[in-house]
Design brief:
Helices cover about 25% and strands about 25% of the residues. The protein has about 475 residues and is α/β, with parallel strands linked by helices. The strands form 6 sheets. It has an 8-stranded parallel barrel, surrounded by 4 helices. Strands 1-22-21-25-19-18-14 form a 7-stranded antiparallel β-sheet, covered by helices on one side. α5 crosses α6, α7 runs parallel beside α8 and α8 runs parallel beside α9.
Amino acid sequence: MERLQLIGKLPVAGAKEIPFSRVGIGFEKLDRDVFDPEKAYDKVAGIGVKKIRIQSGWARTERIEGVYDFAWLDKIVDNLLSRGLEPWICLCYGNPIYTELAKPVFGAVGCPPIATERELNAWLAYVKATVAHFKGRVTIFEIWNEPDCNYSWRHCENEEIDHNRNADEYGRFALATAKAIKETDSAARTMGFALGHAWDIEYVNRALSTGLYQYLDLVSFHAYTPSELNRRSSAHRLRLLLDSFDPKIGLVQGETGAQSRSDGNGAMKGFAWTLEKQVKALLRGLVMDLAEGVEFTSYFSTMDMIEALRGRLADKASYMDFGYFGVIGAEFDENGRASGEYKEKPSYYALQALAYLMRGNAKPYTFPWRSFSLPSKRVNGQDCTDSTRQGETFLLDDGKKALIYWNATDLLTATYEGTTSFEVFGVKADTVKLLDLKNGNIYALPDTMVEDLGLGGVRLKNLPLTDCPLALLFD
Protein backbone atom coordinates (compact mmCIF):
# COMPACT_ATOMS: atom_id res chain seq x y z
CA MET A 1 0.00 0.00 0.00
CA GLU A 2 3.03 2.29 -0.01
CA ARG A 3 1.97 3.79 -3.36
CA LEU A 4 -1.24 5.07 -1.76
CA GLN A 5 -1.86 7.86 0.74
CA LEU A 6 -3.21 6.77 4.12
CA ILE A 7 -5.94 9.28 4.95
CA GLY A 8 -7.81 7.69 7.83
CA LYS A 9 -9.30 4.72 9.52
CA LEU A 10 -12.72 3.21 9.10
CA PRO A 11 -14.78 4.04 12.20
CA VAL A 12 -15.85 1.26 14.51
CA ALA A 13 -19.18 0.99 16.26
CA GLY A 14 -20.50 -1.19 19.03
CA ALA A 15 -23.63 -3.27 18.70
CA LYS A 16 -25.71 -0.60 20.47
CA GLU A 17 -24.80 1.92 17.78
CA ILE A 18 -25.95 -0.26 14.90
CA PRO A 19 -29.70 -0.82 14.48
CA PHE A 20 -29.39 -3.67 11.99
CA SER A 21 -26.72 -5.84 10.42
CA ARG A 22 -26.40 -8.93 8.24
CA VAL A 23 -23.12 -9.83 9.94
CA GLY A 24 -23.22 -11.96 13.08
CA ILE A 25 -21.07 -14.14 15.32
CA GLY A 26 -21.31 -17.26 17.43
CA PHE A 27 -21.28 -17.44 21.24
CA GLU A 28 -21.72 -21.20 21.31
CA LYS A 29 -21.03 -24.05 23.75
CA LEU A 30 -21.90 -22.24 26.94
CA ASP A 31 -24.31 -25.09 27.60
CA ARG A 32 -21.03 -26.96 28.29
CA ASP A 33 -19.51 -24.01 30.19
CA VAL A 34 -16.36 -23.89 28.03
CA PHE A 35 -15.48 -20.21 28.56
CA ASP A 36 -16.27 -17.32 30.88
CA PRO A 37 -18.84 -15.11 29.13
CA GLU A 38 -18.28 -12.27 31.61
CA LYS A 39 -14.82 -11.73 30.12
CA ALA A 40 -16.18 -11.77 26.57
CA TYR A 41 -19.41 -9.71 26.62
CA ASP A 42 -17.86 -6.28 26.15
CA LYS A 43 -15.37 -7.51 23.58
CA VAL A 44 -17.99 -9.18 21.40
CA ALA A 45 -20.29 -6.17 21.65
CA GLY A 46 -17.42 -4.01 20.45
CA ILE A 47 -17.17 -5.83 17.13
CA GLY A 48 -20.33 -4.20 15.82
CA VAL A 49 -22.25 -7.31 14.77
CA LYS A 50 -25.88 -7.80 15.83
CA LYS A 51 -27.05 -11.42 15.58
CA ILE A 52 -25.28 -13.72 18.03
CA ARG A 53 -25.85 -17.47 18.19
CA ILE A 54 -26.14 -19.30 21.50
CA GLN A 55 -27.05 -22.91 22.32
CA SER A 56 -29.85 -23.80 24.70
CA GLY A 57 -28.38 -26.83 26.45
CA TRP A 58 -31.33 -29.06 27.32
CA ALA A 59 -29.13 -31.22 29.55
CA ARG A 60 -27.95 -28.20 31.54
CA THR A 61 -31.42 -26.70 31.86
CA GLU A 62 -33.46 -29.78 32.81
CA ARG A 63 -31.43 -31.80 35.30
CA ILE A 64 -34.54 -33.00 37.17
CA GLU A 65 -37.43 -34.33 35.13
CA GLY A 66 -39.94 -31.57 34.44
CA VAL A 67 -37.94 -28.87 36.24
CA TYR A 68 -36.38 -26.15 34.06
CA ASP A 69 -33.66 -23.92 35.43
CA PHE A 70 -33.03 -21.12 32.93
CA ALA A 71 -30.97 -18.96 35.28
CA TRP A 72 -27.67 -19.65 33.51
CA LEU A 73 -29.15 -18.90 30.10
CA ASP A 74 -31.10 -15.87 31.33
CA LYS A 75 -27.85 -14.30 32.43
CA ILE A 76 -26.29 -14.79 28.99
CA VAL A 77 -29.33 -13.57 27.04
CA ASP A 78 -29.80 -10.50 29.22
CA ASN A 79 -26.12 -9.55 29.13
CA LEU A 80 -26.11 -9.75 25.35
CA LEU A 81 -29.35 -7.82 24.98
CA SER A 82 -28.12 -5.08 27.32
CA ARG A 83 -25.15 -4.54 24.99
CA GLY A 84 -27.28 -4.21 21.87
CA LEU A 85 -26.78 -7.74 20.56
CA GLU A 86 -29.63 -9.94 19.32
CA PRO A 87 -29.27 -13.54 20.57
CA TRP A 88 -30.81 -16.39 18.64
CA ILE A 89 -31.05 -19.84 20.16
CA CYS A 90 -30.07 -23.19 18.72
CA LEU A 91 -32.23 -25.76 20.50
CA CYS A 92 -29.95 -28.71 21.30
CA TYR A 93 -28.71 -31.35 22.35
CA GLY A 94 -29.96 -34.51 24.11
CA ASN A 95 -30.69 -35.20 27.78
CA PRO A 96 -29.40 -38.20 29.76
CA ILE A 97 -32.46 -38.35 32.04
CA TYR A 98 -34.50 -39.40 29.02
CA THR A 99 -32.08 -40.90 26.48
CA GLU A 100 -29.82 -43.79 27.42
CA LEU A 101 -27.34 -42.98 24.64
CA ALA A 102 -26.76 -39.52 26.13
CA LYS A 103 -25.70 -40.67 29.61
CA PRO A 104 -21.94 -41.01 28.97
CA VAL A 105 -21.71 -38.19 26.41
CA PHE A 106 -20.17 -34.82 27.29
CA GLY A 107 -22.95 -32.28 26.79
CA ALA A 108 -25.24 -35.01 25.39
CA VAL A 109 -23.96 -33.92 21.97
CA GLY A 110 -25.58 -35.63 19.01
CA CYS A 111 -28.12 -37.74 20.93
CA PRO A 112 -31.55 -36.98 19.44
CA PRO A 113 -34.56 -37.77 21.66
CA ILE A 114 -36.37 -39.89 19.11
CA ALA A 115 -36.14 -43.52 20.28
CA THR A 116 -39.24 -43.42 22.49
CA GLU A 117 -42.43 -41.40 22.76
CA ARG A 118 -41.43 -40.37 26.29
CA GLU A 119 -38.21 -38.69 25.28
CA LEU A 120 -39.73 -36.94 22.26
CA ASN A 121 -42.58 -35.61 24.40
CA ALA A 122 -40.04 -34.44 26.99
CA TRP A 123 -38.11 -32.62 24.25
CA LEU A 124 -41.24 -30.89 22.97
CA ALA A 125 -42.18 -29.86 26.50
CA TYR A 126 -38.68 -28.43 26.95
CA VAL A 127 -38.94 -26.56 23.62
CA LYS A 128 -42.25 -25.01 24.64
CA ALA A 129 -40.87 -24.03 28.02
CA THR A 130 -37.80 -22.43 26.43
CA VAL A 131 -39.75 -20.47 23.82
CA ALA A 132 -42.26 -19.28 26.41
CA HIS A 133 -39.53 -18.27 28.83
CA PHE A 134 -37.68 -16.15 26.25
CA LYS A 135 -40.74 -14.73 24.49
CA GLY A 136 -40.11 -11.07 23.79
CA ARG A 137 -36.34 -11.47 24.19
CA VAL A 138 -35.46 -14.08 21.57
CA THR A 139 -37.23 -14.28 18.21
CA ILE A 140 -35.32 -16.98 16.29
CA PHE A 141 -35.10 -20.64 17.36
CA GLU A 142 -32.93 -23.07 15.41
CA ILE A 143 -33.76 -26.78 15.54
CA TRP A 144 -30.73 -28.94 16.42
CA ASN A 145 -27.19 -28.58 15.11
CA GLU A 146 -25.70 -30.32 12.05
CA PRO A 147 -28.11 -33.30 12.05
CA ASP A 148 -26.66 -34.41 8.71
CA CYS A 149 -23.29 -35.15 10.36
CA ASN A 150 -22.52 -38.49 11.97
CA TYR A 151 -21.41 -37.02 15.32
CA SER A 152 -24.63 -35.05 15.72
CA TRP A 153 -27.41 -37.52 14.89
CA ARG A 154 -26.58 -40.86 16.47
CA HIS A 155 -28.52 -43.98 17.37
CA CYS A 156 -25.57 -45.85 18.84
CA GLU A 157 -21.81 -45.61 19.01
CA ASN A 158 -19.83 -46.13 15.80
CA GLU A 159 -22.89 -46.88 13.73
CA GLU A 160 -22.90 -46.94 9.96
CA ILE A 161 -24.87 -43.89 8.93
CA ASP A 162 -28.17 -44.42 7.11
CA HIS A 163 -28.41 -41.16 5.20
CA ASN A 164 -32.04 -41.43 4.07
CA ARG A 165 -33.28 -42.68 7.44
CA ASN A 166 -31.62 -39.79 9.24
CA ALA A 167 -33.07 -37.22 6.82
CA ASP A 168 -36.57 -38.63 7.30
CA GLU A 169 -36.10 -38.73 11.08
CA TYR A 170 -34.82 -35.18 11.22
CA GLY A 171 -37.68 -33.97 9.04
CA ARG A 172 -40.31 -35.46 11.37
CA PHE A 173 -38.44 -34.32 14.49
CA ALA A 174 -37.98 -30.76 13.23
CA LEU A 175 -41.59 -30.62 12.05
CA ALA A 176 -42.87 -31.49 15.52
CA THR A 177 -40.41 -29.02 17.06
CA ALA A 178 -41.35 -26.20 14.69
CA LYS A 179 -45.03 -26.74 15.46
CA ALA A 180 -44.27 -26.57 19.18
CA ILE A 181 -42.39 -23.29 18.69
CA LYS A 182 -45.20 -21.72 16.67
CA GLU A 183 -47.88 -22.93 19.11
CA THR A 184 -46.01 -21.27 21.96
CA ASP A 185 -45.07 -18.00 20.24
CA SER A 186 -46.68 -17.33 16.90
CA ALA A 187 -44.28 -14.42 16.31
CA ALA A 188 -41.18 -16.59 16.75
CA ARG A 189 -39.21 -17.54 13.66
CA THR A 190 -38.24 -21.17 13.15
CA MET A 191 -34.90 -22.10 11.62
CA GLY A 192 -34.16 -25.58 10.32
CA PHE A 193 -31.15 -27.78 9.63
CA ALA A 194 -27.94 -26.00 10.66
CA LEU A 195 -26.49 -28.14 7.88
CA GLY A 196 -22.95 -29.37 8.25
CA HIS A 197 -22.85 -30.12 4.51
CA ALA A 198 -24.52 -27.36 2.52
CA TRP A 199 -23.97 -29.29 -0.69
CA ASP A 200 -26.20 -32.17 0.45
CA ILE A 201 -29.45 -31.02 -1.07
CA GLU A 202 -30.76 -34.61 -1.23
CA TYR A 203 -30.81 -34.67 2.57
CA VAL A 204 -32.59 -31.31 2.68
CA ASN A 205 -35.10 -32.36 0.05
CA ARG A 206 -36.05 -35.52 1.95
CA ALA A 207 -36.41 -33.68 5.24
CA LEU A 208 -38.46 -30.83 3.77
CA SER A 209 -40.72 -33.34 2.03
CA THR A 210 -42.07 -34.50 5.40
CA GLY A 211 -44.04 -31.25 5.42
CA LEU A 212 -41.37 -29.45 7.42
CA TYR A 213 -41.12 -26.67 4.84
CA GLN A 214 -44.59 -25.44 5.80
CA TYR A 215 -43.38 -24.54 9.30
CA LEU A 216 -39.94 -23.06 8.60
CA ASP A 217 -39.13 -19.39 8.26
CA LEU A 218 -35.41 -19.94 7.76
CA VAL A 219 -32.92 -22.62 6.76
CA SER A 220 -29.33 -22.42 7.97
CA PHE A 221 -26.18 -23.99 6.60
CA HIS A 222 -22.60 -24.14 7.86
CA ALA A 223 -19.52 -23.55 5.76
CA TYR A 224 -16.16 -25.02 6.71
CA THR A 225 -14.01 -24.98 3.62
CA PRO A 226 -10.87 -23.13 2.59
CA SER A 227 -12.58 -22.28 -0.71
CA GLU A 228 -15.23 -19.57 -0.62
CA LEU A 229 -15.98 -20.34 -4.28
CA ASN A 230 -17.26 -23.85 -3.48
CA ARG A 231 -19.16 -22.47 -0.55
CA ARG A 232 -21.08 -19.98 -2.65
CA SER A 233 -22.06 -22.53 -5.29
CA SER A 234 -23.44 -24.82 -2.54
CA ALA A 235 -25.41 -21.95 -1.03
CA HIS A 236 -26.83 -21.05 -4.42
CA ARG A 237 -28.04 -24.60 -5.08
CA LEU A 238 -29.59 -24.70 -1.63
CA ARG A 239 -31.40 -21.44 -2.36
CA LEU A 240 -32.81 -22.91 -5.57
CA LEU A 241 -34.05 -25.98 -3.70
CA LEU A 242 -35.79 -23.84 -1.09
CA ASP A 243 -37.42 -21.83 -3.85
CA SER A 244 -38.97 -25.05 -5.19
CA PHE A 245 -40.72 -25.55 -1.83
CA ASP A 246 -41.39 -21.96 -0.74
CA PRO A 247 -39.45 -18.88 -1.88
CA LYS A 248 -40.36 -17.12 1.37
CA ILE A 249 -38.05 -19.39 3.40
CA GLY A 250 -34.95 -17.31 4.18
CA LEU A 251 -31.40 -18.64 3.90
CA VAL A 252 -28.86 -18.06 6.67
CA GLN A 253 -25.19 -18.94 6.88
CA GLY A 254 -25.19 -19.89 10.53
CA GLU A 255 -21.67 -21.05 11.29
CA THR A 256 -18.39 -20.66 9.47
CA GLY A 257 -14.83 -20.25 10.55
CA ALA A 258 -11.14 -20.91 10.13
CA GLN A 259 -8.50 -21.65 12.71
CA SER A 260 -5.62 -19.37 13.59
CA ARG A 261 -3.06 -22.14 14.09
CA SER A 262 -2.39 -25.52 12.54
CA ASP A 263 -2.58 -27.71 15.66
CA GLY A 264 -6.26 -27.08 16.34
CA ASN A 265 -8.99 -29.70 16.48
CA GLY A 266 -12.35 -29.64 14.77
CA ALA A 267 -13.23 -28.64 11.22
CA MET A 268 -10.29 -28.54 8.79
CA LYS A 269 -8.04 -30.04 11.44
CA GLY A 270 -4.36 -30.16 10.53
CA PHE A 271 -4.59 -27.57 7.76
CA ALA A 272 -1.77 -25.02 7.61
CA TRP A 273 -3.72 -22.27 9.37
CA THR A 274 -2.11 -19.08 10.67
CA LEU A 275 -3.41 -15.83 12.11
CA GLU A 276 -3.09 -14.23 8.67
CA LYS A 277 -4.91 -17.06 6.89
CA GLN A 278 -7.74 -16.87 9.40
CA VAL A 279 -8.24 -13.20 8.49
CA LYS A 280 -8.34 -13.99 4.78
CA ALA A 281 -10.75 -16.88 5.21
CA LEU A 282 -13.06 -14.80 7.41
CA LEU A 283 -13.28 -11.88 5.00
CA ARG A 284 -13.45 -13.86 1.79
CA GLY A 285 -16.12 -16.19 3.11
CA LEU A 286 -18.39 -13.62 4.73
CA VAL A 287 -18.23 -11.33 1.69
CA MET A 288 -19.29 -14.25 -0.50
CA ASP A 289 -22.21 -15.02 1.81
CA LEU A 290 -23.37 -11.41 1.71
CA ALA A 291 -23.01 -11.32 -2.06
CA GLU A 292 -25.16 -14.44 -2.33
CA GLY A 293 -27.88 -12.53 -0.49
CA VAL A 294 -28.27 -14.56 2.71
CA GLU A 295 -30.50 -13.03 5.34
CA PHE A 296 -27.46 -12.90 7.61
CA THR A 297 -24.13 -14.66 8.01
CA SER A 298 -22.51 -15.69 11.29
CA TYR A 299 -18.83 -16.29 12.02
CA PHE A 300 -17.73 -19.13 14.32
CA SER A 301 -16.78 -18.03 16.84
CA THR A 302 -16.15 -15.41 19.49
CA MET A 303 -13.73 -17.56 21.50
CA ASP A 304 -11.09 -20.24 21.18
CA MET A 305 -12.50 -23.26 23.05
CA ILE A 306 -12.64 -27.02 23.23
CA GLU A 307 -14.34 -28.83 20.37
CA ALA A 308 -15.69 -31.78 22.41
CA LEU A 309 -17.84 -33.21 19.63
CA ARG A 310 -17.14 -36.78 20.75
CA GLY A 311 -16.36 -36.17 24.41
CA ARG A 312 -17.04 -38.74 27.14
CA LEU A 313 -17.72 -37.71 30.72
CA ALA A 314 -15.55 -40.52 32.06
CA ASP A 315 -12.62 -39.63 29.81
CA LYS A 316 -11.47 -36.04 30.22
CA ALA A 317 -8.85 -36.47 27.51
CA SER A 318 -11.66 -37.06 24.99
CA TYR A 319 -12.82 -33.47 25.30
CA MET A 320 -9.51 -31.71 25.83
CA ASP A 321 -9.34 -31.00 22.10
CA PHE A 322 -8.84 -27.30 21.53
CA GLY A 323 -10.11 -25.38 18.53
CA TYR A 324 -8.69 -22.00 17.56
CA PHE A 325 -11.58 -20.57 15.53
CA GLY A 326 -12.14 -17.58 17.82
CA VAL A 327 -11.55 -13.97 16.96
CA ILE A 328 -10.57 -13.82 20.63
CA GLY A 329 -7.81 -16.07 21.91
CA ALA A 330 -7.38 -17.66 25.31
CA GLU A 331 -5.36 -20.13 27.31
CA PHE A 332 -6.95 -23.28 28.76
CA ASP A 333 -7.09 -24.59 32.31
CA GLU A 334 -6.81 -28.21 33.47
CA ASN A 335 -10.48 -28.82 32.65
CA GLY A 336 -10.29 -27.38 29.15
CA ARG A 337 -12.09 -24.13 30.02
CA ALA A 338 -10.83 -21.04 28.19
CA SER A 339 -8.91 -19.06 30.79
CA GLY A 340 -6.25 -16.40 31.22
CA GLU A 341 -6.39 -13.12 29.35
CA TYR A 342 -8.96 -13.02 26.55
CA LYS A 343 -7.07 -11.25 23.78
CA GLU A 344 -8.27 -10.01 20.40
CA LYS A 345 -6.66 -11.58 17.32
CA PRO A 346 -6.12 -9.83 13.96
CA SER A 347 -9.37 -11.53 12.82
CA TYR A 348 -11.25 -9.54 15.48
CA TYR A 349 -10.28 -6.26 13.82
CA ALA A 350 -11.01 -7.59 10.33
CA LEU A 351 -14.50 -8.62 11.41
CA GLN A 352 -14.94 -5.25 13.09
CA ALA A 353 -14.08 -3.46 9.83
CA LEU A 354 -16.38 -5.65 7.75
CA ALA A 355 -19.20 -5.25 10.26
CA TYR A 356 -18.95 -1.46 10.11
CA LEU A 357 -18.73 -1.38 6.32
CA MET A 358 -21.73 -3.69 5.93
CA ARG A 359 -23.79 -2.22 8.79
CA GLY A 360 -27.44 -1.42 8.41
CA ASN A 361 -29.16 -2.32 5.19
CA ALA A 362 -26.02 -2.83 3.11
CA LYS A 363 -26.91 -5.29 0.37
CA PRO A 364 -25.78 -6.74 -2.95
CA TYR A 365 -26.19 -4.18 -5.69
CA THR A 366 -25.32 -4.30 -9.36
CA PHE A 367 -23.46 -1.48 -11.04
CA PRO A 368 -21.35 -1.84 -14.20
CA TRP A 369 -17.64 -2.57 -13.91
CA ARG A 370 -15.00 -4.65 -15.58
CA SER A 371 -11.45 -5.67 -14.81
CA PHE A 372 -8.76 -5.60 -17.46
CA SER A 373 -5.00 -5.74 -17.82
CA LEU A 374 -2.54 -2.91 -18.29
CA PRO A 375 1.27 -2.91 -18.27
CA SER A 376 2.33 -2.79 -14.63
CA LYS A 377 5.76 -1.70 -13.45
CA ARG A 378 4.84 -2.88 -9.99
CA VAL A 379 5.05 -6.51 -11.11
CA ASN A 380 7.49 -5.97 -13.98
CA GLY A 381 4.86 -7.13 -16.42
CA GLN A 382 1.08 -7.00 -16.72
CA ASP A 383 -1.85 -6.68 -14.34
CA CYS A 384 -3.25 -9.95 -13.08
CA THR A 385 -5.50 -11.83 -15.48
CA ASP A 386 -6.04 -14.90 -13.29
CA SER A 387 -9.48 -16.48 -13.45
CA THR A 388 -9.49 -16.48 -9.64
CA ARG A 389 -9.94 -12.70 -9.45
CA GLN A 390 -13.19 -11.98 -7.61
CA GLY A 391 -15.30 -8.85 -7.38
CA GLU A 392 -18.59 -8.25 -5.55
CA THR A 393 -20.59 -5.03 -5.56
CA PHE A 394 -22.75 -3.61 -2.76
CA LEU A 395 -24.88 -0.61 -1.94
CA LEU A 396 -23.95 0.50 1.55
CA ASP A 397 -26.33 1.79 4.21
CA ASP A 398 -25.09 5.37 3.78
CA GLY A 399 -25.76 5.30 0.02
CA LYS A 400 -22.15 4.73 -1.01
CA LYS A 401 -21.22 1.99 -3.43
CA ALA A 402 -18.53 -0.59 -2.79
CA LEU A 403 -16.62 -2.96 -5.05
CA ILE A 404 -14.90 -5.59 -2.89
CA TYR A 405 -12.24 -7.52 -4.75
CA TRP A 406 -9.46 -10.05 -4.19
CA ASN A 407 -7.57 -12.87 -5.86
CA ALA A 408 -8.98 -16.16 -4.60
CA THR A 409 -5.73 -18.10 -4.66
CA ASP A 410 -5.56 -21.23 -2.54
CA LEU A 411 -5.55 -20.09 1.09
CA LEU A 412 -3.39 -22.92 2.35
CA THR A 413 -0.66 -23.09 -0.26
CA ALA A 414 -0.25 -19.63 -1.77
CA THR A 415 -0.13 -15.94 -1.05
CA TYR A 416 -0.65 -13.30 -3.69
CA GLU A 417 0.30 -9.69 -4.29
CA GLY A 418 -0.07 -8.05 -7.68
CA THR A 419 -2.02 -5.38 -9.49
CA THR A 420 -5.27 -5.07 -11.38
CA SER A 421 -7.16 -2.39 -13.30
CA PHE A 422 -10.87 -1.58 -13.41
CA GLU A 423 -13.37 0.50 -15.28
CA VAL A 424 -16.37 1.42 -13.17
CA PHE A 425 -19.49 3.30 -14.30
CA GLY A 426 -22.25 5.12 -12.50
CA VAL A 427 -19.81 6.58 -9.95
CA LYS A 428 -17.92 9.80 -9.30
CA ALA A 429 -14.23 9.68 -10.13
CA ASP A 430 -13.24 12.27 -7.55
CA THR A 431 -14.75 10.33 -4.62
CA VAL A 432 -13.01 6.97 -4.94
CA LYS A 433 -11.12 5.63 -1.93
CA LEU A 434 -9.60 2.27 -1.13
CA LEU A 435 -10.30 0.38 2.10
CA ASP A 436 -8.07 -2.38 3.43
CA LEU A 437 -10.57 -4.63 5.20
CA LYS A 438 -8.04 -6.50 7.29
CA ASN A 439 -7.25 -3.41 9.37
CA GLY A 440 -9.71 -0.66 8.40
CA ASN A 441 -7.11 1.62 6.80
CA ILE A 442 -8.51 4.02 4.19
CA TYR A 443 -6.35 5.30 1.34
CA ALA A 444 -6.60 7.97 -1.33
CA LEU A 445 -5.46 6.95 -4.80
CA PRO A 446 -2.78 9.03 -6.51
CA ASP A 447 -3.81 10.88 -9.66
CA THR A 448 -1.72 8.48 -11.76
CA MET A 449 -4.11 5.67 -10.81
CA VAL A 450 -7.37 7.50 -11.53
CA GLU A 451 -8.64 8.57 -14.95
CA ASP A 452 -12.00 10.28 -15.21
CA LEU A 453 -13.72 8.95 -18.32
CA GLY A 454 -16.60 11.41 -18.03
CA LEU A 455 -20.28 10.55 -18.05
CA GLY A 456 -19.97 8.73 -14.74
CA GLY A 457 -17.09 6.50 -15.72
CA VAL A 458 -13.69 6.06 -14.08
CA ARG A 459 -10.63 4.03 -15.04
CA LEU A 460 -8.56 2.80 -12.09
CA LYS A 461 -5.07 1.69 -13.07
CA ASN A 462 -2.65 -0.76 -11.49
CA LEU A 463 -4.47 -0.97 -8.17
CA PRO A 464 -3.08 -3.27 -5.51
CA LEU A 465 -4.53 -6.78 -5.69
CA THR A 466 -3.99 -9.31 -2.91
CA ASP A 467 -5.50 -12.55 -1.69
CA CYS A 468 -7.22 -10.60 1.10
CA PRO A 469 -10.26 -8.47 0.17
CA LEU A 470 -9.88 -4.76 -0.53
CA ALA A 471 -12.82 -2.43 -1.11
CA LEU A 472 -13.19 0.45 -3.53
CA LEU A 473 -15.61 3.00 -2.08
CA PHE A 474 -17.56 5.50 -4.20
CA ASP A 475 -19.76 8.33 -2.89
